Amino acid sequence: MKQQHHGSRLRLLSGLAMLALGTGAYASTLNQNVSWTVDRSGTTAKYRIVAYGDSIYAGYNGSISNAAKYSAPTVDAEYLSALWNADIESIRRAKSGAVASDVYNNKIVSERSYMQSSNTRVVTFEMCGNDGLQARTAFKDQSGTCSYSGMDTALNNCKTYVARAMDYINANAHANTRLKVISNLYYPGYNADNVQSTCRDATTGATVNLRDRFLPYLTKMNYWMCEYARQKGFKCADSFAEYMGADYDSNGDGQVDSAALRYVAGETEASYVTRITATLKSTLRDANVKLVAASSSYDYIQSDDVHPTYTGGTVSAGLWGGSTGTGAPRYTSFTGGKSPIWNRYGHERMGWTVSVFNPPSP
């Protein structure tokens, strides 16, 4: 199920361009903006969903010139089109590699005009993944005595800019906006991180398990995304639960794993962290093997072990600018609110996770 993207164009990049992009496009930044309108037959009404974020909402696929046409926000646009019997304009203002402060300052604030349009009905954003990825990379490179300060900084920056982003969207999104939603973080490389560090803990003198060290930080980031959402009038699309848990009850506790992992409105940080990192930790699974049933799985993560898989082709987005396009919806109705491929690809699952909050009318 992995989406692999190769091409001679990458070999033609100058050394300067390669240096600017870094590895995996999360070491530095690349604007990847797309406007795609789901054009539904027999209707002229058109509404807008605006999405701000980094490489996740961008639909990053390893290319500097194109991205997934149907990244999560555009998947949700299809759901909206069917629900409202309308054309839906999906505006993705994304910057691959951007940390939370960059998404906030240079996308949400600098490009606020996109959510100020009178036809805006949904505003969504995601951030903090690159704060975590950069802190993880730096920690993996440590030798001698371990320092956890980089992860502490990533967590604090995430909390700061998630709250600021919500406040800013509340103050600037058009009054016609019906839904505001944040998507939280899944854990890319969950299996790959199940190794020991090269540095040693100052107290024990021993190396530490990378996954055991990173998971509580990511869990706290996710808690505050959902808790701030509860406090500030947003919904929280729990992509962590949808990616990292099986869609059946694997541990016999009477709950479907993915449902059991979801944030519960009003719970404390300590309760949430304990539930994810201890009580239900045995049910966490690497999203490269997303179990939709006991004997059936799909791959939600591309071959870079970071970005979500997708289907539906690509659009221009990247070094040579963004693109605007229009096309008929792939699906015009959804039985039970789910497309036939809602659980087969990472972006399809994330888009569905956002869609469950869609208001019944525009």
What does this structure look like?
By secondary structure, this protein is α/β, with parallel strands linked by helices. It has one domain: 3-Layer(aba) Sandwich (Rossmann fold), CATH 3.40.50. It is built from twelve helices and 14 strands. Strands 1, 2, 3, 5, 6, 8, 10 and 14 form an eight-stranded mixed β-sheet that branches. It has a two-stranded antiparallel sheet with strand order 4-13. Strands 7-9 form a two-stranded parallel sheet. Helix 4 packs across helix 12 (346-355). The longest helix is centred in the middle third of the chain and has 24 residues, at 149-172. The radius of gyration is 20 Å and the shape is globular. It starts with 7 loop residues before the first helix and ends in a 7-residue tail after the last helix.
List keywords for this structure.
362 residues, 8-stranded mixed β-sheet, alpha/beta, two-stranded antiparallel sheet, 12 helices
Explain the layout of strands and helices:
Blueprint: H1 8-11, H2 15-21, E1 30-31, E2 34-38, E3 46-53, H3 55-58, E4 66-68, H4 72-84, E5 87-96, H5 100-109, E6 120-125, H6 129-140, E7 144-145, H7 149-172, E8 179-183, E9 199-200, H8 210-232, E10 235-237, H9 239-244, H10 257-260, H11 269-279, E11 290-293, E12 296-298, E13 314-316, E14 323-327, H12 346-355
Parallel strand pairs: 2-14, 3-5, 3-6, 6-8, 7-9, 8-10
Antiparallel strand pairs: 1-5, 2-5, 4-13, 11-12
Helix pairs in contact: 4-12, 5-7, 6-7, 7-8, 8-11
